[in-house]
Amino acid sequence: MSYYIAPRFLDKLAVHITKNFLDLPGVRVPLILGIHGRKGEGKSFQCELVFEKMGVEVTHISGGELESPDAGDPARLIRLRYRETAELIKVRGKMCVLMINDLDAGAGRFDEGTQYTVNTQLVNATLMNIADNPTDVQLPGSYDSTPLRRVPIIVTGNDFSTLYAPLIRDGRMEKFYWEPDRDDKVGIVGGIFEQDGLSQREIEQLVDTFPNQSIDFFSALRSRIYDEQIRNFIHQIGFERVSLRIVNSTEGPPEFKKPDFRLSHLLESGKLMVGEQQRVESSQLVDEYNRLNRGKGYQAAPPVTGTPTTQPSSNGVNKGATNHNSQKPETLSPHLTLETQEQIRQILAQGHTINIEHVDERRFRTGSWQSCLNTHIDAHSDAISALESCLTEYAGEYLRLVAIDPKAKRRVMETIIQRPNGRN
């Protein structure tokens, strides 16, 4: 099977690796190439294809190895792997690189709830030190004055804004945002289904039917086509005999005939997968759990006397509201669900203040939220009015409600209250 390598990806990676092995007078070459982009777009796999094409050997480090119960172990691991790769260049006489997958998962800080450990600090500091002194990388407790061969470092991740800012500055790290365009997707998906008899036109139709899906979606789709045959195989031999037949059998591995890879079948299976994705996104159980668990002692305030009896309509907008409280009623909105208004009331009853943030669909993937307000709100009527204005002004964007503890100066709750296209 021949896989497709995106020309932009090949060009960027080849230039960075080659440039690090050249002696360019008066030129400071960044040691690290950071490849970032949304999940599932094949960043690591494209790297592997480029390495294979160029004949480059790779030493791998996973983001999961960048934390340890023993302080200093991950930093020492980076130095050790770097020195081993430099020795490989010397012994093999060929290009070698050090690759760290999912660097932001191991060394990034996503929000105030992410613990910033000693190891996180040491990993960032170690990579900065290596980028500044690539031929003088020492192990703790020893010193070797012999200069090392320079080793290009490739790191991948989804959101590099979570990393320590001095590490990703120009001069240390060159950034490459990978987002395959339609031509790239058609080429990559064509490679995935190359042996299945799909025409170029069918590949294009498949990609155009699911334009917002990542590359991993199409790979998972091909895998899913085999499910029906495997299911029939399991039912044929019996659930209790599957293990003996596959793991400890003298009959050899089972053989399956080629599944149905017609375009109509692929589209049908793909739509089922999209439906599963949407169900995960729409459930949003984590928001419910976070509302209950974020912040110490965060509990719902007692209900207000004369709670409105009006029910929200199916599109999340109140059909009307009445209040039978003899005292001055709280401001009720005809445009917000009762659930949202109750959330606001509970937040303010706890002594917290409110902020409202928005982000468009593109920046939502990187978590680049922006505040809609110039100040935090501590009055119910002001909060309702501000929220209605934000819903109108940012109708095509995500909106989230943020509760802030003014004494501790930290967030105690975040909940999305609007999604693009009016999905509230």
UniProtKB/TrEMBL annotation:
Biased segments, Polar residues type: 306-329
InterPro entries membership: ATPase_AAA_core (IPR003959), P-loop_NTPase (IPR027417), RCA-like (IPR044960), RuBisCO_activase_AAA_helical (IPR048571), RuBisCO_ssu_dom (IPR000894), RuBisCO_ssu_sf (IPR036385)
Annotated CDD domains: RuBisCO_small_like
SMART domains linked to this entry: RuBisCO_small
Domain Ribulose bisphosphate carboxylase small subunit: 328-420
Molecular functions per Gene Ontology: ATP binding; ATP hydrolysis activity
Region of interest: Disordered: 295-329
UniProt keyword terms in alphabetical order: ATP-binding, Nucleotide-binding
SUPFAM superfamilies assigned to the protein according to its UniProt record, in alphabetical order: P-loop containing nucleoside triphosphate hydrolases, RuBisCO, small subunit
Keyword ATP-binding tagged: yes
Family: Belongs to the RuBisCO activase family.
Protein's name according to its UniProt entry: Ribulose bisphosphate carboxylase small chain
Originating species: Tolypothrix tenuis PCC 7101
